[in-house]
Amino acid sequence: MSIYLFSLSQVKAENITQVISLHVKFLKIKIDFDRYDYLIITSKQAVAALEAFNPNWKNKSVLAISSATANAVIRAGGTLLDVGDGYGDNLGGIICSYPKTTRWLYARAKEIASDFASVCIKSGFFVDEKIVYETSCAQAILQADIPDKATLIFTSPSSVRCFLKTHDLARFSHIIVIGQTTARALPLHVKYIVADEPTVESCIKKAKE
Questions:
Q1: pLDDT digits (tens, 9 = 90+) for 160-177
Q2: CA distances (Å), 198 to each of 96, 155, 162, 179, in order?
């Protein structure tokens, strides 16, 4: 069975055809990190964007959405405050466990899948949002030639939306998603399987099962 992985970056995996799903553009913006106590980072791309334009971000501890993002923070020389379970909606609970006087900076993409920051703000917490990168559909996913009955792995809601611009999911055998947020981007009639953990590795394991 053919397995296709749609993701932002290449991973080491045997017998998997990897297709880059998004093009990432870093945005150069001015940020005074001294105004904040902690950073919130929900992707490896946000780490790369901050590193490209303002390495002073490493002076602040980071609340990372997942172990993968946490590893990116550490590799770049940053420090961790806490690590979430891979879902943006659950970061709100961590933020709300700190005093409302805590000042958070959420370095994010232009388009996001979770509104946890808005929820925290409405509850009286200080979360400042800065868009540090934006994405667009990569030609690789738009032009991908995929055989019938293949198994597809989607690692973000954006990868689903880009795929659906030029493809129909009806002719494929299995759809694997990294989590429920990604699943919600699928058409209602499409059956799918959620990975046991919100990681690419778990998606691949589930696809091979």
A1: 999 999 999 988 889 999
A2: 23, 9, 20, 6
Question: Are 147 and 1 spatial neighbours (Cβ–Cβ below 8 Å)?
Answer: no
Count: domains in the chain: 2
Mean pLDDT on 127-143:
96
Q: What is the DSSP letter of 65?
A: S
Which of the four pLDDT bands, split at 50, 70 and 90, describes residue 89? Answer: confident
Query: 104 and 200: one domain?
Result: no
Last residue of a domain, one of 84, 115, 136: 136
The burial of 137, by beta-carbon neighbours within 10 Å (0-12 exposed, 13-18 middle, 19 or more buried), is given as: middle
Cβ of 205: how many Cβ atoms within 10 Å? 15
Domain that holds residue 171: 3-21+138-208
**Domain final position from 136, 171, 187:** 136
